[in-house]
Amino acid sequence: MAEQTAADILVESLIDWGVDTVFGIPGDGINGIIEALRKRQDDIRFIQTRHEESAALAACGHAKWTGRLGVCIATSGPGGLHLLNGLYDAKLDHQPVLTITGLPFHDMLHTQNQQDIELDKVFMDVAVYNNRVMGPSHVENTVDLACRTALAYRGVAHITMPVDVQSMSVDPKQRSERNVPGRASDLMAKSARLPDEDQLARAATILNAGRKTVILAGQGALGAGDKLIALAERLAAPIVKPLLGKATVPDDSPYTTGGIGLLGTRPSQEALEDCDTLLIAGSSFPYIEYYPKPDRARAVQVDLDPQCIGLRFPVEAGLVGDTGKVIDALLPRLDYREDRSFLDKAQAGMDEWNALMVERGTRDDKPMKPQVVAYELNKLLTDDAIVATDSGTITTWAARYLDMRGSRKFSCSGNLATMACGLPYAIAAAIAYPSRQVVCFIGDGGVSMLIGDLATCIKYDLDIKIVVIKNNTLGQIKWEQMVFLGNPEYVCDLQPIDFVTVARGFGVRAYGIDDPADCGGILREAFATRGPALIEATVDPHEPPMPPKATLKQATKFAQSLAKGSPAREKIALTVASDVVREIV
């Protein structure tokens, strides 16, 4: 039997921790680890991406979709550096990800050698655990602690290892006297995750005293949908869903008013403006301007992380624990609210909002509106669909038109809001759940950044449907320049790409849509085929992602941008005026 190497111990430790998938790109700085993965390929799968950023984003997506540890790997120097954007996505969205990188030869570090970048120093900010392996006897302890820390603190753990150390044989004589064999453990212990009794009593008093309560349910409330609905029924409280919490409760539930923020709904915004009590459940929604005025509402917050209590809004009771378990403990203490008028008003507002969304989603204007594509796509989603979207105006259309129901999953880059996450997230979903429908709903700016991973879809025969909204512009930046700053649009237009031709060059089936009359039929045809398919939907570049309630300041800034000479200002003004008229009427 061949002697075990340091890399063999690393891979065996990953398997012991239940890791079955690693995303990455091979390289000479990790050749020893790649060889160890080759030898255990029946137990742990290596998914080759076309960019290290894709690997890190896919690892983050894997963690989001499965709740388990996501793992990515890259070589020394530039390979490791390319991981950082995806790792920051995991850090800011509190996802457990382990990243493994290589280093140059141990005795050549910090001597201006090729690719001489000390990645453990580079990763100090992004990682909750960060360690350089010093020898074969150091591996097992390091991997165990890295995996445990990433899972326990829901963050990024980083292990880096010199390339020559990877191939060193394990020799018991190399152990220090304190490194006793068998002292490591792959056990992940979980706490009861229940809050303090005093805080529970305080929270119940605050909620029972309220008359107009809103529940703000984020990603920390995923999996607690039934309990959220029971809580909403008890308190006659609308459930407002920040984007990462979109799948907490079904969008057709009478208790939810949908999203909040620029891509949210009017009833959600009005509910938060008018509430006297706020229950924040598993959310650190960052846009504080959409919260109630601090002197207008009392607040209770539920979160696993004590550090997040009171982070966005002043709270009077902090319940540290799992959202579902906290609600179980809280419900018996809450009175049934007889006055349902606040909830009734929110529900009436949602009826009007949904009618407006249908009206916009069924328009037959040309150029085709992006809402039409999202509206037709929503009809094709199965009850177990997994939807990945990207950052930009595409996020607005996904938030407002792609409904959650059944066991559907939805995610995007939340607090980092990075572009290019959609396709790697979808790849991770298709790898983890090969029998489920996986949809990537993405903009042309985002998909073009990491378009090389269309090859990954083909290489692993992933059944992903990629719907590209093509407006040939960085739409979100364009509208931010105009509406928030009052500046003319500048350097946002994109050189057009024929995504149909490009996709076919990768071997991906591809379809094009530019007529709203054909939209539903072409989408159905594409979705009926097995395997990866790309649908390019060419839409009106001047269609704005209208905020749920436009403010006078936004209108003033928009008028200033037009007056200063925004390109195509006549078409933009006409489109915006048309949308406003439709909303008012």
Automatic annotation (TrEMBL):
Coiled-coil spans are none
Under the heading InterPro entries, the entry gives: DHS-like_NAD/FAD-binding_dom, POXB-like, THDP-binding, Thiamin_PyroP_enz_cen_dom, Thiamin_PyroP_enz_TPP-bd_dom, TPP-bd_CS, TPP_enzyme_TPP-bd, TPP_POXB-like
* Sequence ranges assigned to domain Thiamine pyrophosphate enzyme central in this UniProt record: 200-330
Membrane listed as a keyword: no
Question: Can you give the residue ranges of the Thiamine pyrophosphate enzyme N-terminal TPP-binding domain?
Answer: 5-116
What keywords would UniProt list here? Pyruvate, Thiamine pyrophosphate
Per the database record, which ranges form the Thiamine pyrophosphate enzyme TPP-binding domain? Answer: 390-536
Q: Show the PROSITE patterns listed in the entry.
A: TPP_ENZYMES (PS00187)
Family, according to the entry, reads as follows: Belongs to the TPP enzyme family.
UniProt protein name: Pyruvate oxidase
What species is this protein from?
A: Devosia nitrariae
